[in-house]
């Protein structure tokens, strides 16, 4: 290892969106690859919107100039969208409550830099959850405290979380990450979890990641301004179909957004990404019109998998489902998950093996039908 590299980074494993490398099965390459492992929308932008964006790129964007580093028009549009989406008649959310990141991933890192860096804090997460919180904390040398979840409904183990907060010193817990609804388990925050985050003291930042808001329609934004220690994160990568362009936003107290602005790179959002996000908001009704189909396809997937008995399923408040093989021998679950993931991959369905289960994105009806048949046909015996 090169001796100038921080020793703690040697142990760190980089995030891999499609673990397991290329698809190369003894049966040859599948004709069709269904990417139902990363929770994006299965639908690209409509052709007319792409043309509009291409036109903007040709006519309006000067590629020799730096992009707008203030993000002012986009922040304004997002603030209006947030008020509208939460049916907040008094329009309490303003552009000063918004900060933009190169994906929510950048915002997670900026939040960590703004709160915990330099030995000032640890972060708390409840496993299984979105892996980026832990990965980004580790890259910054920030300790990660993990607690578990209730296996029947994936509610956070609140007594364990309280104990971890009480017992973690040097440095104390400064940030708690929750996801609403959680990935990979697809459950929205329960009343008990909501009460718990309301009860956390003002010296702990609560990050509420609402990446799947457009699917779940659950949000804590109406309570945000009562809690200066809360920040909500959202993204254009899921329902808004812009994962390729990397735009996420945070909604928070103006003092926190001002700090995020200090910490981010000055030109973190390319001009084209800013334009695309503005166009997506302007056409939100058209883009969101795909959501009812995705939700009914999700319910159909769950209904068809239910009678199989071989899988344990959980309800979903998002555009993906989570399942585990129903096996008596708990030690056999891990190897079985690997087998199922490999077998589906060989057939052309990419799913994600994570958190001791399988996370499967709801795709197009055709993709879902293939996912379903392949899971139905999967043979647990050998
Ligand atoms: C997909 C996802 C995001 C989005 O990240 P981007 O960097 O905005 O693409 C954030 N949080 C969770 C929990 C997610 O699943």
Structure description:
- It is a single chain.
- The chain is an alpha/beta fold and 382 residues long.
- It contains 14 helices and 13 strands.
- It has a 7-stranded mixed beta sheet with strand order 2-8-7-6-5-3-4, with helices on both faces. A 4-stranded antiparallel beta sheet has the order 9-10-13-12, with helices on one face. It has a two-stranded parallel sheet with strand order 1-11.
- The longest helix has 15 residues, at 291-305.
- It starts with 6 loop residues before the first helix and ends in a 5-residue tail after the last helix.
- Bound molecules: pyridoxal-5'-phosphate.
- Pyridoxal-5'-phosphate binds next to helix 4.
- Its cofactor is pyridoxal 5'-phosphate.
- Homodimer.
- InterPro entries: Aminotransferase_I/II_large, HisP_aminotrans, HistidinolP_aminotransfase, PyrdxlP-dep_Trfase, PyrdxlP-dep_Trfase_major, PyrdxlP-dep_Trfase_small.
- Pathway: Amino-acid biosynthesis; L-histidine biosynthesis; L-histidine from 5-phospho-alpha-D-ribose 1-diphosphate: step 7/9.
Helix content: 25-40%
Radius of gyration: 21 Å
SSE succession: HEHHEHEHEHEHEHEEHHHHEEHEEEH
Figure out the total of helices: 14
- Category from helices, strands and their pairing: alpha/beta
Let me know the largest β-sheet: 7 strands, mixed
Gap between N and C termini: 42 Å
Coarse morphology: globular
Q: What spatial order of strands do you see in the largest sheet?
A: 2-8-7-6-5-3-4
Strand proportion: 5-15%
Spell out which ligands are present: pyridoxal-5'-phosphate
What value does the average pLDDT take?
95
Number of strands: 13
Low-confidence stretches: none
Protein name: Histidinol-phosphate aminotransferase
Catalytic activity: L-histidinol phosphate + 2-oxoglutarate = 3-(imidazol-4-yl)-2-oxopropyl phosphate + L-glutamate
Subunit structure: Homodimer.
EC number: 2.6.1.9
């Amino acid at each position: 290892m090169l001796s100038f590299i921080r020793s703690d980074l040697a142990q760190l494993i980089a995030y891999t969106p499609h673990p397991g490398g290329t698809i190369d099965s003894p049966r040859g390459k599948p004709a069709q690859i269904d990417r139902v492992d990363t929770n994006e929308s299965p639908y690209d932008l409509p052709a007319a919107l792409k043309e509009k964006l291409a036109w903007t790129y040709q006519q309006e964007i000067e590629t020799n100039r730096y992009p707008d580093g203030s993000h002012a028009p986009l922040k304004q549009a997002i603030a209006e969208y947030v008020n509208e989406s939460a049916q907040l008649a008094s329009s309490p959310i303003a552009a000063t409550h918004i900060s933009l990141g190169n994906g929510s991933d950048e915002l997670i890192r900026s939040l960590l830099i703004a709160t915990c860096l330099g030995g000032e804090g640890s972060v708390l997460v409840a496993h299984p959850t979105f892996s980026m919180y832990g990965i980004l904390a580790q890259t910054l040398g920030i300790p990660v405290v993990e607690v578990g979840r209730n296996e029947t409904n994936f509610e956070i183990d609140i007594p364990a979380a309280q104990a971890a907060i009480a017992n973690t010193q040097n440095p104390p817990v400064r940030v708690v990450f929750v996801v609403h609804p959680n990935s990979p388990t697809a459950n929205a925050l329960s009343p008990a979890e909501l009460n718990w985050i309301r009860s956390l003291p003002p010296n702990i930042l609560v990050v509420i990641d609402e990446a799947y808001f457009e699917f779940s329609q659950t949000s804590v934004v109406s309570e945000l301004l009562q809690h200066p220690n809360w920040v909500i994160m959202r993204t254009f990568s899921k329902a808004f179909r812009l994962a390729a362009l990397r735009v996420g936003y945070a909604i928070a107290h103006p003092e926190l957004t001002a700090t995020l602005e200090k910490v981010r790179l000055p030109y973190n959002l390319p001009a084209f990404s800013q334009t695309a996000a503005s166009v997506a908001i302007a056409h939100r009704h058209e883009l969101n019109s795909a959501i009812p189909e995705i939700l009914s396809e999700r319910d159909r997937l769950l209904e068809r998998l239910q009678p199989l008995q071989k899988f344990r399923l959980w309800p979903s408040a998002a555009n993906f489902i989570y399942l585990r093989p129903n096996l008596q021998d708990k030690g056999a679950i891990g190897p079985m998950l690997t087998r199922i993931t490999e077998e589906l991959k060989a057939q052309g369905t990419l799913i994600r093996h994570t958190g001791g289960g399988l996370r499967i994105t709801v795709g197009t009806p055709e993709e879902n039908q293939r996912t379903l048949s392949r899971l139905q046909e999967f043979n647990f015996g050998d």
